[in-house]
Design a protein that fits this description.
Spore Coat Polysaccharide Biosynthesis Protein SpsA, Chain A, single chain, 30 strands
């Protein structure tokens, strides 16, 4: 039995401004029909069981909604209060599944990779299964085609006649000089972050080499709280857990590690440069997405989300335009976008965390305009959904229904509003917005007050167990 473990904890800072803290790269559409998270689920081998998902508490509804969109079920969604790297994440899943199944083989996959050659991927997984049955701890190493500094490497005992190799060492992301040496030697593979092994074998090796991680994860699951598909940990126990990757916690210490070479057009989409390589280009080597007009532009990636973007007489540029942020960088500097994100975080800028359009479990809101003492939002509530019963200490709200029918709770009154009707929610009044119809409910909300931050929400009741 193969049970996939989908690790979905990355932040994707090098793909800012599309990828942000509360909607990272695995949950955004990067030009394909599905998100990276959805593609990871859809390319699973047919014989695999429903996956178990590991994600951040903040992303739980994104994961659940995107699973619903592709009509897929899970063995549960484990919610981490904070990311502790891959060893604890995999330990949680292994412990959870080992209790409820007959020692399944785990197929560990990051949620943010592109794999174009699905057949080659499936063939590698099939080889991995035969090795895992023999109690081997398997990883998949991508055959390098350049001296890449953005990936970690696996040093292996290469034997061209074999379908798998013994592992000698794991290497962190190298500088250019070392990357050149690795490529020239022919004994190195890119570290894909994908693994395969029995639950019991992984847990035994973890107990041998990183017992503190195992103990913390066991304690985190002792009094777990299961709500539908969501599995909530004992947070104070998980916060004690050491932060360590599976590479350094287990794989580089065990005597039973094996690497399978993978040649499946793999891309970890770690930067705009790497994403550009996976996309179709025009005759001048440009990737164009959205409303874009170019003249004498070469080898550039230009993306527009909502308006005309034009460029003249430039080359080797990344230009990414979203509703609230514009990025311009040379292709060769695309790995350094994380430095901008760091500065945004240090200044508490919202652009590091959210898009202008923010998704919620009940729908979304789009901040249309904001000024001194006011903010205007377009709010969409899905059929059958409702916002929390709440109040605000610093703002009043005016609601105008644009489409659909709204059920309004305001104080001790409950009433319906149709299209073109409006209502007023005074500051401090308990209120709720609900869509009992069959189509999306859209309203325009105008907030007025001396403070308009999202943290001025006091939730009294909530269907989604948010604070």
């Amino acid at each position: 039995m193969i049970i996939p473990i989908i690790i979905s904890g990355g932040s994707g800072t090098r793909l800012w401004p599309l990828s942000r803290k509360l909607q990272p790269k695995q949950f955004i559409n990067l030009g394909n029909n599905n998100t990276l998270f959805q593609e990871t689920i859809l390319r699973l081998p047919e014989e695999a069981e429903n996956p178990i998902i590991i994600c951040n508490e903040d992303h739980r509804f994104l994961a659940a909604e995107q699973l619903r969109e592709i009509n897929k079920s899970t063995n549960g969604i484990i919610l981490e209060p904070i990311g502790k790297n891959t060893a604890p994440a995999i330990a949680l899943a292994a412990l959870k599944l080992y209790k409820s199944s007959d020692d399944p083989i785990l197929l560990v996959l990051p949620a943010d990779h592109l794999i174009e050659d699905i057949n080659s991927f499936h063939e590698a997984v099939s080889i991995g299964e035969t090795l895992a049955i023999k109690n081997k701890l398997v990883t998949f190493g991508v055959k390098p085609n350049k001296a890449e500094t953005g990936y970690g490497y696996i040093e292996a005992e290469m034997n061209l006649k074999s379908k798998f190799y013994n592992i000698k060492s794991f290497k962190e992301k190298p500088n250019q000089s070392n990357a050149n040496k690795y490529l020239k030697s022919g004994n190195y593979l890119w570290n894909s972050g994908m693994f395969m092994f029995k639950s019991s074998v992984f847990l035994q090796e973890l107990e041998k080499f990183a017992p503190e991680i195992l103990n913390c994860c066991k304690n985190s699951l002792k009094d777990q709280n299961e709500d539908c598909d969501f599995i909530r940990l004992v947070n104070e126990e998980f916060l004690k857990c050491p932060e360590l990757s599976i590479d350094y916690a287990v794989m580089e210490h065990t005597n039973d590690s094996i690497v399978i070479p993978l040649d499946a057009k793999w891309n970890d989409v770690g930067s705009w440069e790497s994403l550009m390589k996976s996309k179709a280009k025009d005759n001048n080597g440009n990737v164009i997405e959205g409303d874009v007009m170019l003249d004498n532009v070469n080898n550039s990636f230009i993306y527009s989300s909502n308006r005309l973007v034009s460029a003249v007489g430039v080359q080797d540029l990344i230009i990414i335009d979203t509703n609230d942020a514009l990025l311009v960088t040379n292709i060769n500097n695309s790995q350094n976008i994380k430095n901008i994100v760091r500065k945004l975080k240090n200044q508490n800028r919202p652009e590091a965390v959210n898009h202008r359009k923010v998704f919620r479990p009940w729908g979304y809101y789009d901040s249309i305009d904001i000024g001194d003492g006011f903010q205007a939002k377009r709010i969409c509530v899905k059929p059958g959904a409702k916002i929390s019963l709440q109040k605000h200490n610093h703002r009043s709200e005016h609601w105008v229904v644009v489409s659909g029918c709204a059920k309004i709770t305001c104080g001790d009154k409950t009433y319906n509003l149709e299209k073109n009707q409006s209502t007023y929610i005074p500051k401090g009044e308990i209120h709720r917005l609900e869509n009992q119809g069959q189509v999306d409910l859209e309203i325009i909300e105008v907030q007025t007050g001396d403070y308009l931050g999202e943290d001025d929400i006091i939730r009294l009741e909530d269907d989604y167990q948010r604070d």
